[in-house]
Amino acid sequence: MPSYAFVDGQYMPRHLAQLPLEDRATNFGDGIYEVWVVAQGKLVDEQKHFARLERSLGELQIPMPMGRPALAQHIQRLIRRNNIRFGTVYLQISRGASKRDHVPAADIVPSLTIFTNNKPALADARLSPKPLKIITGPDLRWARRDIKSTSLLPNVMLRMEAHQQGCHEAWMVDDQGFVTEGTSSSSWIVTPEKVVVTRALTNDILPGVTRDTVRELMSQSNHKFEERAFSVEEAEQAAEAFITSATNFVGPVVEINGVTIGHGQIGEVTTILRDLYLRAAGL
Ligand code: PLP
Q1: Scanning 8, 35, 202, 230, which has the fewest C-beta atoms within 10 Å of its C-beta?
Q2: Which tens digit of pLDDT belongs to each residue from 34-60?
Q3: How far are the Cα atoms of 62, 64, 92, 97 from residue 109, in angstroms, in the given order?
Q4: Ligand 1 atom 3: the closest Cα is on which residue?
């Protein structure tokens, strides 16, 4: 049975789905996206991802192509139609298509694309988290990293480098030597004093939905929590490190730039937060 995609108001077999030649997401990276995880057929952190989508669109003055309930209905239909129990939903809204010009046509209409990916491995990832090795590299992105833009070239470049070095993720580092975030995840450390640290929300990082849920859950753990910048050196000497993202949940980092973190295994605090998150997400 083919997988279906939703493109500009129509369901169609995914392999037939296309965007126009002059779609602005392709020509300019002029678009926004969101990724939800589907677990047991349900969207995780559903409303928070919608809220971030609406905020990102608002910052770029791209109108929502339809209201949140209608959008949610199309997503649910695709999940059912594609029989997704564990997987992801990718949703992209581009400013639309018009003759290639930096100034969009006055009557441009946003284009909406939704597709799903079946990922049965996510079911196992809940039970046994993969220990992650990461590298760090310069953050080459723009000054509005809070917007979930489809322009991801610096993220792609650094992630390819991590992959070439046999690593799973890369943490990006600002001009002052402080970690901003991962190429597709939020960055966290646990200090030797067991303080949980992640960078504060500003335009320097994407407001991670998983980050937000874990931050809320901190009140259920006995650990001190600080939202502040941390350097690469502090991260390398941390007792524990982890990433958060929709698809990684709370993912233990056991090596940074070849330096073993803690005992080189998933840490105690990371395990507590991971379990809290998985329970809260209904996983
Ligand atoms: N930071 C960046 C740059 C990302 O691309 C992502 C996810 O794709 C995240 C952080 C984590 O966000 P979330 O927890 O909402 O998946």
Answers
A1: 202
A2: 999 999 999 999 999 999 999 999 999
A3: 9, 10, 14, 7
A4: 184
Distance of CA 275 to the CA centre of its chain: 19
In the chain, which residues fall in CATH 3.20.10.10?
A: 132-280
Give the nearest ligand 1 atom to 186 CA.
10
Task: List residues with catalytic annotation.
Answer: 148
Q: Measured in whole angstroms, how far is the alpha carbon of residue 114 from the centre of its chain?
A: 16
3-state class percentages of the chain: helix first, strand second, coil last, to nearest 5: 30, 30, 40
If DSSP codes are grouped into helix, strand and coil, which group holds residue 260? strand
CA–CA distance, 84 with 120 (Å, rounded to integer): 9
| CA-based nearest residue to 235, from 143, 157, 170, 155 | 170
Find the 1 Cα to ligand 1 centroid distance in Å.
31
283 within ligand 1 shell (Cβ under 6 A): no
- Burial letters 174-203, b for 16+ CB under 10 A, else e: beeebbbbbbbbbbbbbbeeebbbbbebee
Q: What is the pLDDT of residues 75-131, one digit of tens each?
A: 999 999 999 999 999 999 999 999 999 999 999 999 999 999 999 999 887 778 999
Separation CA 220–CA 227 (nearest Å): 17
DSSP string, 146-183: TS-BS--HHHHHHHHHHHHTT-SEEEEE-TTSBEEEES
The C-alpha atoms of residue 71 and residue 276 are separated, in whole angstroms, by 29
Domain 4-124 has CATH 3.60.15.10: no
CATH of span 132-280: 3.20.10.10
**Beta carbons of 95 and 24 less than 8 angstroms apart:** yes
CA of residue 202 to ligand 1 center, whole Å: 14
37 closest CA partner among 282, 247, 249, 277: 247
